[in-house]
Amino acid sequence: MTEWIISILLLIGGTFVLVGSIGLVKMPDFFMRLHGPTKATTLGMASLLTAAMVFFSTTQAGLSVKEILISLFLLLTAPISAYMMIKSAIHHKLDSIERTQGKDNIEDDC
Amino acid sequence: MMRLEAKFKWLPTPLRSLLLFMVWLLLNNSVSAGHIVLATILAIVIPWMTSPFRTKQPLLIKPGLAFRHLMLVLYDIITANVQVAILILGPNKKLTPGFVKVPLDLTHSMPITILASTVSLTPGTVSAEVYPWQESLMEGEEPEQRFLLIHVLNLTDEEALIKTIKQRYEAPLKEIFQC
Lengths: 110, 179
Known about the structure:
A: mainly alpha; B: mainly alpha; 2 domains; 5 helices
């Protein structure tokens, strides 16, 4: 039974991480590319870590809770790193694709 | 009313102390007496020593509401993941990306940081910038109105998006910090 739970969690996690990576390759410009890794990967990692937690809690003596900490740190760092990257992208005036709306909402910074 | 100072001088940030306590126990993966004592000492000494270096931020006033908001955000993260996965796997031509400026009612940097992070983790949006630029302001000057610039993966209705962000994520934060 636990084996089933672990396998399903691993599959879900792997799928989401894969989708995030596909987004990274497939999207046409930097700003859109950023969406995949910030979101899809967070849930994917959470599933993988839950699987690890179930596995180590059932096969070894005692509960394993370190994975909660890893998820917590991931949740904290993912938006911050995304913010730093998009901030520098705007600063360097990277091109976004033609049909991007509201480009005039970006203010100049010099 | 918004509170900047904690009740007790020796415990400047109660929640951060609690977090440190929990993180220490989780890192050691044990709840033995020795680790609890050490965690308590660390949880009191570290915030006490570092509090002079920090700028004052509003304190969390309604923990119950904060917990409910956290649950809502976690739920939204899961739905956001599924939505973004569908958008990513769909054809690129259908996507209409865009930049949107959301006017903010929040004034302090910590609530704004929390809002920006939740926006980044929830459906189809990544927060990009807070306007006006901190560098363009004079020392100690407070801007009249702050804006959060966000990048949207698939922009369909700008008004509705701004309204959702303001009602779903900003209003609870305003109430939690009472500012």
